[in-house]
Amino acid sequence: MRINKYISEAGKTSRRGADKLITEGRVTVNGKVAKIGIQVEPGDDVRVSGNPVRLARNNVYIALNKPVGITCTTEKKVKGNIIDLVNHPLRIFNIGRLDKDSDGLILLTNDGDIVNEILRSENKHEKEYIVSVDKPITPEFVQKMSEGVQILDTKTLPCEVKQLSKYDFQITLTQGLNRQIRRMCIELGYDVFRLQRTRIMNIQLGNLPVGQWRDLSKKERNQLFNELDYEPREW
Question: Helix (H, G, I), strand (E, B), or coil: what is residue 157?
């Protein structure tokens, strides 16, 4: 970003006024006197008359209760894409995916830096689901699901599985293979009727209505950032 735009968007003065400050030698970037037209990078120390100038970044972090039938893509040409559903004024994108046939919690943001932190497989962040299947759940099924199932030329990692009713169970994963839960169930002779994601790390779906979204609370954001050891850039 050009230095005059940076100072202007920080609310200090107009771009013309910023150019005047630069010409007068009152603007420094990383301790050096700035020149007209230089570029400012995220993390640079910009000062006017010795006072720090910071540009607050308008980061958004959204929890959506995705309905069945919505596709997790930013491609607007795809009918039923998640971006059209949310209809947010800022340019946002989904963090990870949720199958078109599945519903529940998915996060969206305009903060590209946080995406890899959440999705990085070695971090083993928990995601929780409630699954409904086509026939009665047995202790053997629960045991095999929790110990790991052979799919996609690999064995899934051990996970926590809890039977909720005759046909429903809760599963907590720390990995995200393609259609993992559905493939695991099929391998054990079950078909999935419904798959709903209810939690991503510390973010709970709660009673958020289907098709609706909300901004993460300050408490949720802070806990998420702490778990990720992540500090958002200023801009």
Answer: coil
